[in-house]
Design a protein that fits this description.
By secondary structure, the chain is mainly α. The chain has one domain. The chain contains three helices and no strands. The two termini are 47 Å apart.
Amino acid sequence: MGGVVGRVFNEFAVVIGMAILVSGFVHDADPDAVAAVPARARSTARPGAFVRALEGGFSAMLARLRVSLAPVLRHRARPSS
């Protein structure tokens, strides 16, 4: 591609390529650093009202999804001959 659009695409491709290379070098250079960080102990504190409200909303959404998918999952596709 020529023109301004071609230049933009070319520069975008270079940036994406460099990001992939840097990510690969970081991954290869220090893979044990991430594994060496100890996992934090889970807090026994009760979550706040906002978190409880979000969890309730997610639970309700999951329940609606289960109800709506039940009829679909009862009618499986027949294998082709």
